[in-house]
Design goal:
The complex is a heterodimer of chains A (349) and B (324). Chain A has 349 residues and is of the alpha/beta class. Chain A folds into two domains: 295 residues, Rossmann fold (3-Layer(aba) Sandwich); 33 residues, no CATH class. Chain B has two domains: 181 residues, Rossmann fold, CATH 3.40.50; 127 residues, Rossmann fold (3-Layer(aba) Sandwich). Chain B has a seven-stranded mixed beta sheet with strand order 3-2-4-5-7-6-12, with helices on both faces. The radius of gyration of chain B is 19 Å and the shape is globular. In chain B, α1 runs parallel beside α7. Chain B is an alpha/beta fold. Classes of the chains: A alpha/beta (349), B alpha/beta (324). Chains A and B meet through α5, α6 and α14 of A and α3, α4 and α5 of B.
Amino acid sequence: MFQILNEEGRVRPGAEPSFDPSALRRMHKLMVLTRTADAKALKLQRQGRMGTYASSLGHEACQIGSAFPLRREDWLFPYFRDLGTYLARGYPLADYFHYWMGNEAGLRTPDGLNVYAFAIPVASQIPQAVGAALAAKLQKQPQAVLCTFGDGATSEGDFHEGLNFAGVFKTPSVFVCYNNQWAISTPRARQTASETIAQKAEAYGFPGVQVDGNDVLAVASTVGEALDRAHGGGGPTLVEAVTYRLGHHTTSDDATRYRTEDEVRAWEPRDPLRRFRAYLRAEGLLDEAAERRAEEAAAEAVEKAVAEAEARPPATIEDVFAYTYKEMPPALAEQMAALKETPKAEADR
Amino acid sequence: MKITMVQALNQALAQEMARDARFVLLGEDVGPDGGVFRVTDGLVQKFGPERVIDTPLAESGLVGVSIGLAAGGLRPIAEIQFLGFIYPAFNQILSHVARLRNRTRGRYTAPVVIRTPYGAGVRALEHHSESTEALFCQIPGLTVVVPSTPYDAKGLLIAALRSEDPVLFLEPSRLYRAEKQEVPEDPYEAPLRRARIAREGTDVTLIGWGAMVPVLEKAAEDAAGRGVSAEILDLRTLAPMDREAILASVRKTGRAVVVHEAPKTCGLGAEVSAAIAEGALLNLRGPVVRVAAPDITVPLPKSEDIYYVNPARVLAGILATMEF
């Protein structure tokens, strides 16, 4: 398993991180922002201000490390546990919250940002990401496509079909599997008898690399190399980022039913943020004051995003009808008109 | 020139691909083989292997990749070899193709045309004869189209290709080479979401689509011999359905027979009947009759005729409502 930082945040012998100080500071800020926003989302859910939510706690290195090396024109095809990936791509946090608060409008990616709508049916985004990469290749556009998914996704047919297509057409694809050991209650060992997930790439005819998914530098440099290869016409890469889901699957899940406290506690020292912070401190790139500033800035940004998302008007009847077809069929227009005529009080009963 | 439905479809594809370089055709055996029914014959020679793409044998991948191609600015035309093999792709169609526009509030769309042959009456293998259009007609956002003539095959396919909504384009394999019809050489559109009156009549409305339309025509002839004037409505677009055309015809005739080769229960005939009950109840002079396949699996060829809706069964349906 490839590592740049060991669990104490020290550079491993022979490894040479190739990120400049400003890049390192940006990664740190994004990781802090992700963790802060995630904690806030969980609080909002408990207060009834957000719907069921899939926490990204513990995935910050996977997410920031994967998105960080993307070029502006590259695509991201994410899944439902990708808060940090969204933020690293510059997706507005208010929009992300808006979706999870229960409004599709939050999934409307701002123009000019190549972030596809995340998929909830597991692995279904994989062939789509391959299609976008094939489109780039056929049109000779300098684009690569990053597709992310969890370990459970590797059992789905769409994982096989997508990676197989990618291998056959040698698409500019980078697949990153956040192997967080659990798919709701199903452990990694129940998903596959393969020794690693990375080794599955061999069967599709392209390289697979296993990296420490709690080491943001290992993820970023591996994904960066894979993106370079994709841009250079070298075809796809599968990256297995080994991490751990520190939280429940979603706010509707109770992970104490199927895994032990001891197991979770064993992963806590490997916390990606703690490790990166130790590295930055040792390198003299972060002091206590700077860290506090990063945390305060994150908290402020999160509060602002929550306020913005909550201030948005609720969806209208038109909003929920208007986007089913390019032009609304008469029967649908009739249904909409009938709903509008239903007195509000009656509709609420 | 008089051409078959296969030739008409081929012409539509060739003309639209020549007009707009964004169209890419992908599927299993669509390249040098020209598709198992030869609908894509000669296209790879015309447009090259980067626009007529033979893919791995994977239907979900095929539709999923098409969604991504659309995201990248192309206009994919995906061929599923038989409707009976589309089910691995059902998740991509239901969960993504059809709902993408809505769940991104119009930011992303999937203007994908999925073409596939379907239907019984061709003495085919197991899984090659089903008529499961109703499964797809309940999916909001998906347009389901079925031609019944070479003229409509060309015009509807061109309209589907130019549509901004995703279209499932069902091609009745029984009609691929059943008749030749005069079809204009130049491209033209037959309107989506519009039924077609295939025969005018005054006593009863026969409603069908695809390979049932010739069956209705035969039944209407037989009915005429008994003094019954039957109107035939070819739905052409099954979803969203042309209710106005159904109601207009039934208000005129006062009777309706809905015919499909799919099983009766929860078939599209149920929806048509309900639409008539909602919109033309007081015009009815007899019960709405459904003539459909029984609720069984399509039998293998030796027993196919037990299953398949024929003109005699349609005529019996017509007489049942006429004699009410």
